[in-house]
Amino acid sequence: MQILIAFIVGAVIGLGIHFQLHQRLTRGVVLAPMIGAVSAGIAWTILTWVGVGIDTPWPWLAALIVPIVVTYPAVIAISRSRVAHDGREKARLGIG
Known about the structure:
It is a single chain. By secondary structure, the chain is an all-alpha fold. About 75% of the residues lie in helices and about 0% in strands. It contains 3 helices and no strands. About 25% of the residues are buried. The model has no long low-confidence stretch (mean pLDDT about 95).
């Protein structure tokens, strides 16, 4: 059940990253929280499968650090890709 805490923490971190980074209108408001939640859950799952117990600080630190390390570059790359794609589409359609 503690994995739910990791999902919630990852989603909150992702939400903070969404509002901290520019080009918010190029991505949905749910994208960054989902990336954060999934990355925190995967990190938690891997650590528990390896045998690291929840009585150690490692799963808790992973639930805090992994979403930051994964979500920042993912959101930046997705935003840049979307802006570039929109620019190509505008040029192709002769809009702007």
